[in-house]
Amino acid sequence: MNVKFSFDKAIAERRGFMLEDVHQTIKNLFAAPGFPCVSEGDVLSFTDKGHGDDFAVMWDIILSLLRSDWFLDCAASCVWQDEDGEEDILSQAGKA
């Protein structure tokens, strides 16, 4: 399992955020339970640790982000990937 994020730098800056700070915030949220950041740069990607509760913990973080106005404003993409395929989470943000 993994989740990938990208952000709109112009929107983040209009909201008063530096893109580096947005990236660091996301990294900190996933680092707290030990999920590794496996890709950096324009797209941040985090993967599971192979533990039974990884799915629930990752989705808890994702859902908390979806409830944050700053995230919804700045996020350009948020894509969940697992053995069943890929899911565009932002397109379903209204359901969170």
Which helices and strands appear, and what pairs or packs with what?
Blueprint: E1 2-7, H1 9-14, H2 19-31, E2 37-39, E3 43-47, H3 54-66, H4 69-74, E4 75-82, E5 85-88
Write up this protein:
Helices cover 40% and strands 27% of the residues. The protein starts with a strand and ends in an 8-residue tail after the last strand. A five-stranded antiparallel β-sheet has the order 2-3-1-4-5. It has helices at 9-14, 19-31, 54-66, 69-74; strands at residues 2-7, 37-39, 43-47, 75-82, 85-88. It contains four helices and five strands, in the order E-H-H-E-E-H-H-E-E. The protein is of the alpha+beta class and 96 residues long.
Key terms:
5 strands, 96 residues, alpha+beta, five-stranded antiparallel beta sheet, 4 helices
What is the gist of this entry?
It contains 4 helices and 5 strands. The protein has 96 residues and is α+β, with helices and mostly antiparallel strands. Strands 2-3-1-4-5 form a 5-stranded antiparallel beta sheet.
In round numbers, the mean pLDDT is 93
Helix and strand content put the structural class at: alpha+beta
User: In which order are the strands of the major sheet placed?
Assistant: 2-3-1-4-5
Q: What is the CA-atom radius of gyration, in angstroms?
A: 13 Å
Biggest sheet character: 5 strands, antiparallel
Number of strands: 5
> How widely separated are the two ends?
20 Å
Number of helices: 4
Oligomer kind: single chain
How big a fraction of the residues is strand? 25-35%
Order of helices and strands: EHHEEHHEE
State the low-pLDDT regions, or none: none
**So what's the overall shape?**
globular
How much helix is in the residues? Answer: 25-40%
